[in-house]
Sequence to fold (531 residues):
Amino acid sequence: MNTPRCDQTQAWAALRSHYEGDGHQFDLREAFASDPGRFDALVVEAPGMFADLSKNRIDAASMKLLIDLARECQLEKRRDAMLAGAAINTTEDRAVLHTALRAPRGQGPFSDDVHGVLDAMLAYVESVRHTRASGIRHIVNIGIGGSDLGPQMAVPALEAFVHPELGFHFVSNVDGHDITSVLRHLRPAETLFVIASKTFTTQETMANAHAAKAWFVANGGTDTTKHFVATTTNVAAAAEFGIETTFGFWDWVGGRYSLWSAIGLPIALAIGADNFRAMLGGAHEMDRHFATAPLAKNLPVLLGLIDVWYRNFHGFTSRSVAPYHQGLKRLPAYLQQLEMESNGKCVDLDGNALPFATSPVVWGEPGTNGQHAYFQMLHQGTDVIPVEFLLVKHPTHDLADQHTKLLANGLAQAQALMLGKRSSQAMAERAPTAAKSLAPEIVARHRTFPGNRPSTTLLLDRLTPHSLGALIAMYEHRVYTSGALWGINSFDQWGVELGKALCGDLLPRMASGNTEGLDASTAGLMRRLLD
Ligand code: F6P
Fold:
């Protein structure tokens, strides 16, 4: 599709002059002081969530120009092409149809295929969850990247919905410590292994799958057909491995967009068929929002536009995700793959080198833990790092007082980032810990906060399968939005291939000790390792 890249538009030039004019001096404190309607103007309701964008460095002028940018880049046309199943992943000549996986029966492309697998998988799920009959007590998902991070994020997030008699374990790393620490606590007769791999060739997953099978047999396991199941597009390879029960999916499901497919099997085993369908339902509602809401009220579009504004005009290099919900402890890792594998690219769709920056670094930890680790840098460091706070109104525990403290902490951090503390205020404070020899104005400098540090707050009423589905779909579309504006292919991942190929060359060398032709550093390190 021939659509302009962001930097070839009039809006881009207008954004540049706006930024270089008043835009870069924007101050959140002044913006709130001068506009009592700022909060109401910059909140967005979307399925499953309420978003406060008002603590971002945006005003009506920058917002209008960013929406102009989306229009000039023909974002809506690109979005519609993706949703209709055009082969927008051109370097792999594939459609990008994770949205079809959550479309209701009879709607969306490939509906019969999608619902055929889903029905079969959910029937299987219910049979395993009937633990007295199945005898299964532990599920071990063996997969990596997109075949791991989605289930690994969603199962703890939905802990309140998880079958009380089932334990869930995730093995991803080729490092043998990973699988051995899991298997140590298990018994073959009670264990179900899910071998999750789109390709069924990934080195780490295959190594762990073979290790699991060897452990199973060595420890008296008798019926591998009952205790091993595969989720893959490569049914033949799964059969060759000796697996009879396989739930398939298709090449138009990208690995990092695959938790809605058979790759979501551990999630479905954890929360059951109805809840898994509710998760798909929440994602579908977000898809409808993305497809139909006007750009100015379209949450994933607005967040994607702010991401471009920050990355390309403000020059912010990273974004921190702070979920104030312990269940979302793996959300930052999940988002790292979603965003950085999708948008960590340096050429456009036509192969031209990009003259601007793309994916930021995405990172974070659950609140309040992050506050006692790296928030110091967010408040007083030399970099400005936008923070995304995720707050959930109703917890699933009954420790009401702790929940109030949690929410107050999240609100306070966003407030502190924005308000900061002026030096005059710091001067007025007593600083009892400072050395007597230190002049008061020097002490005050250490206790000053620059403020004007942006954040977004996403509020969920409850963390449920439905709202989690909507949340993850929202992030997918947001990543798509910034990728589309940058004119990149957000759906390939050639960047992971070179290391895989070089590892293929080094492996036999590790056995033979042959370092000939290697660079001096790799050769020297290999010699030390083999000594
Ligand atoms: O890390 C690269 C990658 O291709 C990811 O995109 C993918 O999610 C992961 O490897 C696992 O691949 P597979 O599901 O084929 O084992």
